[in-house]
Amino acid sequence: MRSKLFVLVMLVTLVLSACGGAAPTEKAPAAAVTEAPATVTEAPAAATEVPAAATEAPAEATEAPAAEAVELTLGSWRVDDVEAWDAILTAFKAEHPNITINFDPTNPPDYNATLRTQLETGTAPDLFFVRSFATGLELFEEGYVASLADLPGLKESFPAGALAPWSTAEGEPFAVPIAAVSHGIYYNQDIFDANGIAVPQTWEELMAVAQTLQDAGVIPFANGTKDAWDINEVVMMALIPNNIGGIEGRMAYLNGERCFNDADMVAAYTQIQNLAPYLPDDYTATSYYDSQQLFVQGVAAMMFDGSWSISAFEKDAPEFNWSVFAVPPAEGKDQYISFHMDAAIGMNPATKNAEAARTFLEWLESEAFAEAFGNGVPGFFPVSNNVPTLTNPVANEFLSFNNNAAGTDIRFVWEKLLDSPEGAPSTYTVMNDGVIAVLAGEQTPQEAADALQEALASWYEPAQNCK
Amino acid sequence: MAQRIKKFYQEQGIWILFILPALLVYLAFMAAPLFDSMRLSFYTGKGYTPTEFVGFQNYIDLFTNPIWRERFLGALKNTAIFFAIHMTVQNSLGLFFANLLSAEFKGRNFFRTVIFAPATLSVLVTGFLWTLILNPHWGAINQTLKAIGLDTWAKPWLGDKNLALPTISLTSVWQWVGMPTVLFLAGLLGISDEILEAARVDGASNWHIFWKIKLPLIKPVIGVVAILTFVDNFNAFDVIYAMAGAKGEPGYSTDLLATFFYRTGIAGEHPIGIPNMGMGAAIATITFVILMTGVLLWLYSSRANEDVA
Amino acid sequence: MSRIQKAFTYLALSIWSLIAIFPIWTLIINSFKPQKEIFSNPFGLPQNFTLEGYKAVWLKGNFGTYFLNTIYVTVISLALIVFFGSLAAYALAKWHSKTSTALYVFFIAGLMIPIRLGTIDLVRIMQMLSLQDTIWSLIPVYVAMGMPISIFILTAFVNTLPKEMFDATKVDGASEWRVYLQIVVPLLRPAIATVAIFNMMKIWNDFWFPLVFIRAEKSRTIALGVSLLFGQYRTDWTRALSTLSLAAIPILLLYILLSREFIKGLTAGAIKG
After folding, report:
1. Are A316 and C211 a contacting pair at CB < 8 A?
2. Which of C80, C177, C211 lies at the smallest CB-CB distance from A114?
3. What pLDDT digit, counting tens, does each position of C96-134 carry?
4. A37-180+341-397: which CATH number, 3.40.50.150, 3.20.20.140, 3.40.190.10, 3.40.50.720?
5. Is residue C142 within 8 Å of residue C206, measured between CB atoms?
6. Which residues of B touch A134 (CB under 8 A)?
7. Per-residue model confidence (pLDDT) at position A67
8. Is the pLDDT of residue B308 over 50?
């Protein structure tokens, strides 16, 4: 009988060792260069383009002899742009036939957690998207993003303002900025025409438009609060620059020259309050995607949203004409645009192919990239000095805001204000909660602004001594 | 000495060999990693491997810092409600269905299959489906209510702070009711026909048979179901994450201990996303202590009951 | 059963069946409709039947590979869970000592901690074993994860078995191993079926461990492939619903196939006496 037991134990060991034993052979192809199916289909295309690329980029000739075929992975949270990125990376491969880069995105809600797991265990992609300010800086300080202080051409190719969100306080850059996003109000031109409405130039006109639409039985604004973040990022933070006077205004808050509950900040919350009657019924259960659907189906006439949604709206092919206008300032105030630094690409210091990765990062400075990216992913605006001509009309409409405005600025809380210490209230959350409470009528604009000031005063020195 | 070893082997050793495979896998791939991670609750720092030792500071903060305390107590309360809804609604429904399904009638295999079917689906699927069905603009529920004239009943189910948690709990009940049904069914089918027959001959009503005969006989199963409901729902995460996000929207009203842990220790708070695993581990450890206390109490009381019986 | 009882049984079960099936029905029929029809005709049969969603999803992901990977992982894990779990449960139920109680509690404790807490350590273990990026990295974790609930359920069932059954065979001088194989396993069939199905769903639908262990396309499981495609198609409902259907249909079919065994196991194995 005992022998049977031994057989059993042996069996268990066998099964376990079979799993283990199979591993190396399983593992080998995973690491192999030829693995990705995408490469197979792309290879011929790249091959035919090689001669052209070689004549276009003589600089590459110096690198070519040393280069061996390498394959890199580019991590990202942009699952929506897989096709566009495949095209961009094919364009890169045309210039650098030895370097294959695979775009490997993770869903946005899981991105931070998976990337960090991979970084801490040494399994992260060679290149990856880096978020701006606190999030990216933290990764850099922990040594998970390589310094790019010596990347040729970086400082010449980008304005200082574009590099700042991915640089240390001392100005050491660690990621190549690729995109900014803008914010505005999408609108249904057919509904506007049918109701004889012109694009509003002031906040007061916007409110009148909303009233007209509501009287006509149309939902004026599609926005809701179920997902919470969108009312904060695409509505509140798009309203703030107009109310506080753009970047100069924001700097005055950051320096303690103004308090976070001053009249201008209360005015921004008051505009949120103005919007409340014009949101859909049950806006509390309306998610960001629901809002987009309400707009695309022509049920709602307008929607506060970011420029990144252009391609989503185009994919849905609404049966009406649509465009976008800038969030109008209150009567007598200047127009500012919320133009936010959104994404940069950094390098994993642990990559085995640092040379190839840096070649790619340098390519991000080029006009070729700006062109391929700006037109491939409309609504993400290249931030390099060589701004290409964009072909997408709505994207151009967004860009035209910048030319007609007194200035542009990033989202209000991103710089410095996100750095609250552990156990202190998150500025972002306090603002988000306040906006939702004001919409629900649970707080007055003044109370919401007071809560913001109080939260910041608990840790942010300038807010403690503000005037 | 040799005698004693032999005796030990004959009485106990064999059992150890039986348990060994399970124990080894469990130790290596679950217990050790988890135990090692619980240690992190005494550290602080950013990321998943904090290094600065702080003793009990994370626990103290959790109970005394108003920011942490509010979230923690809120999540604890919501988790208790979430559990209570499953305990009462899901398990009574399960017992009810199991009782119906234990009888002989045509088509019962079909119903047995159907009731458990939703449990096979991923929460990614069921969460998306139910948000669709509960959608205020084009969801089936509100459209139906409006069609039959009950407009005032058409609510923003997932947007209302008072409704969101019960609503999500009920969708979870919908998905998992098959579990208690199956367990109860197995218990009810184990009751001998002779006992039930004898009761019927004595003229006992179905009601009486259910309460006085069946229920006491499946008491062990009820215990198993209760304890599984307890541990499953105190760790529930997926359904909230799929339907209300990692923050338990609206306004933390559906935030459970597991989403609180995930947000703090794994994902980090939006939009910064820098996790604090030390605090995360503290939250997980407290959850563990709560659950362990509950389970040990149950084990103790069921042992005590056995002795009485 | 009296006629009223029967009518009540059918009525109650039919209502719940409708509630149970309705969302799944909505999912599948809507995946065959173009996006606009999903909104205009959400519950009816498709008027403009389309396979565009499935075509797009099928071309985009390697569902054949995902499916095979998931089958391997699930089947191997389940076999080990059931085998290890029932062995241990039998021992824990029959062996009365302080050690066994402690071991039992130790196993059950695993039900009470979110497994994500141990992620980093697990990734490191997989690297050490060079299992990273292969489907084999998932199996030991799933087997370990399956132990607590399996041991809990199986031990509870062994405890309900009448003691005389074991004693009778013991007198014959049968070894514990034979008692396990010839008596315990057949009697435990319903519980084993339950444990297998519980664990099957968890393993089949888990996407956290594939997400952190696996990058290579050829090692992806259905749950991981689907969650990535779903993120990509979130705004394109035809494709989103097709993606989700592709996740749901195989496991539903598998369950329906197994459910006959499952129910047979429940009924046949039920202990009369």
Report:
1. no
2. C211
3. 888 888 999 999 888 888 787 888 889 889 988 999 889
4. 3.40.190.10
5. yes
6. 272, 274
7. 58
8. no
Q: Which of B246, B269, B274 sits opposite A109 (nearest CB)?
A: B246
Q: With contact defined as beta carbons under 8 Å apart, do A338 and A327 qualify?
A: yes
The CATH classification of domain B50-308, taken from the options 3.40.50.2300, 3.40.190.10, 2.120.10.80, 1.10.3720.10: 1.10.3720.10
Radius of gyration over alpha carbons of chain C, in Å?
Answer: 23
- B172 CB neighbour count, 10 Å cutoff: 26
Please tell me if residue B25 touches chain C, with a CB cutoff of 8 Å. Answer: yes
Selected residue with higher pLDDT from B305 and A236? A236
Q: How many residues would you count in chain C?
A: 273
Domain spans of chain C, in order of start: 21-50, 61-269
Closest Cβ–Cβ partner in B32, B115, B227 for C20: B115
Of A41-55, A310-324, A420-434, B143-157, the least confident = A41-55
Which CATH code for domain A181-338+407-464?
3.40.190.10
Query: Interior CA angle at A388 toward A386 and A389, to 5°?
Result: 150
> Which CATH topology does C61-269 take?
MetI-like fold (1.10.3720)
CA distance A355 to A373: 23
Q: For residues A17 and A104, which has the higher predicted lDDT (pLDDT)?
A: A104
* Chains interfacing with B (3 or more CB pairs < 8 Å): A, C
Indicate the SS3 state at residue A132: coil
Spell out the domain ranges in chain A. Answer: 37-180+341-397, 181-338+407-464
DSSP state letters, A299-324: SEEEEEEEGGGHHHHHHH--SS-EEE
Mean model confidence pLDDT for chain C: 85
Would an 8 Å CB–CB cutoff place B147 in contact with chain C? no
Read off the pLDDT of each residue in A6-22 and give the average, rounded to a whole number: 38
**Of residues A442 and C124, more confidently modeled:** A442
Output the 3-class SS for A210-252: HHHHHHCCCEEECCCCCCCHHHHHHHHHHHHHHHHCHHHHHHH
Task: Name which of A110, A294, A423 is nearest B67 (Cβ-Cβ).
Answer: A423
More confident position, B289 or A14: B289
C174 SS3 class? coil
Comparing alpha-carbon positions, the chain B residue that sits nearest to C160 is B220
Q: Which of residues 137-156 of B touch A (CB under 8 A)?
A: 137, 155-156
The predicted-structure confidence for C220-273, as pLDDT tens digits, reads as follows 998 888 888 887 777 778 888 898 898 888 888 888 887 777 776 665 544 433
Q: Is-same-fold flag (A37-180+341-397; A181-338+407-464)?
A: yes
CB contact under 8 A, B287 and C88: no
Give the pair of three-digit tokens for residue A125.
Answer: 């992609």
A10 pLDDT more than 70: no
In the predicted structure, residue B307 carries a pLDDT above the cut 70? no
